[in-house]
Amino acid sequence: MKVNCEGCAGCCIDWRPVSPAPSNHERRGPREPLDDVYNLVPLTRDEIAAFVRDGFGDVLVPRMWEATPDADAAVEIDGVEVAAIGGKPAFFVGLRKPPKPVTPFGTEQTWLHACVFLDPETLQCRIHGDEMYPSECRDYPGHNLALGTESECERVEEEFGDDRLLDGDAPDVSGLLLGPHAVGSKVFAYPDPEALAGTVEQMRRGDLTDADRAAFVGVAVGSRPGSTDVDTARVEAVKTTVLEAESWAGTAAEAWTELSGVVGDDAADAPDGASVEVGRGAPETAGWDDAEYSGWDDAEYSG
Question: Which end of the chain is more exposed for a tag (fewer CB within 10 A), N or C?
């Protein structure tokens, strides 16, 4: 599999505001997420734990789903039937997407929600190739090809032209966890539904508190693979670590949120990524002329 990512980052950005045609979430199941984050990257338990260990617990955000009408595995929170596992709210954890000034697909610089690790100028991932680089990102769009679903690469091709998916053969992918195998490893069960009172509307608005996010992350890391049980001592320790985190990515996300205009509006006067992110300690990206980013296979960058 080979993809052309230069000037795109369609899988890292919510590009619906600049799309010529309406677009729905990339989704693989019948349940509607409570949040409106586009292409939220689901992380594995081990990946979440690594982010927390390395001081990046403040870049993580949870997602829950509304239960389907005929669901027998649901729990009510704030008057909403939420998808559940064994009577416990189901969720996964992904990476935050604050608004950033970006120019994907040759468009004008615009305020769009973008991955916390995306360099808004080069449209390259600041942790690409790093140990923290998520398997979901590494394999993309391999999961789509394996499941026979349209990829973001193909959507971008349809709307803006250019060849993005250069080789559509489905590769062997490592992180495709489905069904019971995902429980405790990629999909988690919150042990105390009553403690989530008030979070449904906050999740819908995208304004969960730091404490809310830390609680979900704690449960994810404290989960036991194949089970809905959690290690309560580990949950509490992780919550504390997340609340103490002040990574360059987390603080930059807060700064972008404060600096941003209305999402979808012109961002010509926005500060540059170096001042907001590199100034806080973000690693610089190489740019597309660097050989490291040219001609890679296996769902990696291609110039």
Answer: C
Taking residue 288's Cβ as centre, other Cβ atoms within 10 Å add up to: 16
Q: Which residues contact 278 (CB under 8 A, 6 or more apart)?
A: 284
| Among 267, 263, 253, residue whose Cα is nearest residue 110 | 267
What does 63-113 look like in DSSP terms, one character per residue?
Answer: E-BBPPTT-SSEEEETTEEEEEETTEEEEEEEE---EEEE-GGGPPPEEEE
Residue 202: give the domain boundaries: 2-293
CB neighbours of 177 closer than 8 A, spacing ≥ 6? 44, 185, 186, 187
Sign of the alpha-carbon torsion through 35, 40, 44, 50: negative
What is d(CA 264, CA 262) in angstroms, rounded to the nearest whole number?
6
Nearest-CA neighbor of 55 among 224, 248, 193? 248
Establish if 245 belongs to a structural domain: yes
Would 298 be classed as within a structural domain? no
200 with 82: CB under 8 angstroms? yes
98: tokens are 């604050």
Tokens of 60: 């993580």
Q: What is the pLDDT of residues 109-153, one digit of tens each?
A: 999 999 999 999 999 999 998 999 999 898 888 878 877 888 889
Residue 199 counted as domain residue: yes
Residue-wise pLDDT for 253-267, tens only, equals 999 999 999 999 999
pTM: 0.91
- Kind and range of the H or E element at 62? strand 60-63
What Rg, from alpha-carbon coordinates, does the chain have? 19
Within a domain: residue 299?
no
Structure-token pair, residue 281: 């300690």
Question: What is the per-residue burial (b if ≥16 Cβ within 10 Å, else e) of 170-193?
Answer: ebebebbbeeeebbbbbbbbbbeb
Query: How many domains does one find in the chain?
Result: 1
